[in-house]
Amino acid sequence: MINFEEELKKFHPSLEVEDAEDAIYNQDLTDVADVLIGMMKEVKEEALDLE
Amino acid sequence: MRCYNCGCQLSEKDFCTGCGADVALYKRIMYTSNFFYNEGLEKANVRDLSGAVISLRQSLKFNKNNVQARNLLGLVYYEMGEVVKGLSEWVISKNLRSKKNIADDYIDMIQQNPSRLDTINQTIKKYNLALGYCQQDSLDLAVIQLKKVLSLNPKYVRAHQLLALLYMKAEEWEKAGKELDKCSRIDTGNTTTRRYRKEVDKMLEKAESVKAKGGTRKKKIAEDTIKYQSGNETIIQPINNRESKGVSVALNIGIGILIGVSAACFLILPAKEDADTSSAQEELRIVSEQLDKKTGTIEEMEQEIRQIREENEQLKQEVNDYAGNDGKMEVVDGLLNAVSVYMESPENTERVGQALEKIDVQAAEQVESEHFQSLYRILLTEAGPSVAASYYKSGMDAYQKEMFEEAIEDLEKAAEYDPENGDILYNLGNAYRQNDNREEAIQAYTQVVEKFPGTERARRSQNFLKELNEDAE
């Protein structure tokens, strides 16, 4: 049996056109490739430090 | 695919031929991103838009620079009615690759149609408003708003779902089912839609089973119908509607007549009575209006009559003021006549005297006009002595003939026109005395004594006064 109140909580207000700019700027664009590159850089720097 | 370190084109080897960097893991990430993009594309092709969104977002989690995945995600959002989300993805995509990007076309398509963009924004605002109504428990208002939203943007999946949820809350299962069908047509794989659909189907089945137990009559109706499924719609069509014949036909006719008569008695007659009453009321209203109008006219006319009377009184007053209540006009007329007569024939003292006699002396004294008084005095000064002499002569003639009353009359007039003449006054006194008018005689003699002291007439008057006083004692 569906609980109306609980279901209603799953609906959120839609973004309006005026809010689009903020939404674009605030979007987290970090991807796995960024994480990997970051990690690779860190490993490389650590290796250089050891040398 | 290019090296993340130096930007060189990568070969099939696990390291970069340009800088020697290990690209094995990087390549695997890129492949994974592409895998999710392909999955998303497949789902989008079969209208599993929710599934496509999940896959495409996964793809972008692995590689944010996957422009194709981002553009497709924007397109899927747009198709689901989430226009702002779609627009955001396209804008980011355009920033990542400014040339040869299909996102340009999508953005231009929206920007070149401002009214469409405005409609979209209105749709979103109304959806948010409807959601607010739901949270305030104003479900009827929310339904109205959502219907407006869907009339503007029929592909808005979330609005369909919310409307279906509201119908479910109101236990309007069939309506909820229709909304969910529309959702399914837009997005086939949406789990929320499926969950709601399951609930609605369960409730509809329950309702059907209750109906099925409803009795033999309902069964008979069911037997007389053809039931078939057209898409998601269940169509129930009657086989035939043959009327039973014989007694039942007569009975039906009788019932029909009875219903007709009842309708005439309870509906038509009261309606006719109402019509008559309203017509009579209308006539009464018209007559009342006419009566009011006439009453108003009568009042106006009475007012006019009162004004006319007042004006009449005022005019009469003015005429009286001009004419003079005490015969002023007559006096003035008499004076003018006397002046005219005197100017025509100053020697004809008889006519002048007659003209002067017509002037009421007392009335003449009350006339306030200075010109009148001046003219009157001039006339008396000019014509008075000669007129007085004429009367004096006739008076003395009558006196000689011992006709004392006539003598008094003429002498009084002579004294009036020439009051400074001692002979006239003296002889007037004598006439009074001879006619036994003692008081008048005393007055006349007293005037002589006072006005002409030291004269023979005064001395004689004094003597007569003494005699008269002695007689009285």
What is the structure about, briefly put?
The complex is a heterodimer of chains A (about 50) and B (about 475). With about 50 residues, chain A is an all-alpha fold.
Q: Features of this protein?
A:
heterodimer, A: 51 residues, mainly alpha, 63% helix, 0% strand, B: 473 residues, Serine Threonine Protein Phosphatase 5, Tetratricopeptide repeat, two-stranded antiparallel ribbon, 2 strands
Strand order of the largest sheet of chain B: 1-2
Measured distance between first and last alpha carbons of chain B = 175 Å
Q: What structural class do helix, strand and pairing data of chain A support?
A: mainly alpha
Overall helicity of chain B: over 70%
Structure overview:
The complex is a heterodimer of chains A (51) and B (473). Chain A is mainly alpha-helical. Among the domains of chain B are: 89 residues, Alpha Horseshoe (Serine Threonine Protein Phosphatase 5, Tetratricopeptide repeat), CATH 1.25.40.10; 108 residues, Alpha Horseshoe (Serine Threonine Protein Phosphatase 5, Tetratricopeptide repeat); 34 residues. In chain B, 30% of the residues are buried. Chain B is mostly helical and 473 residues long. Classes of the chains: A mainly alpha (51), B mainly alpha (473). Chains A and B meet through helix 1, helix 2 and helix 3 of A and helix 1, helix 2, helix 4, helix 6 and helix 8 of B.
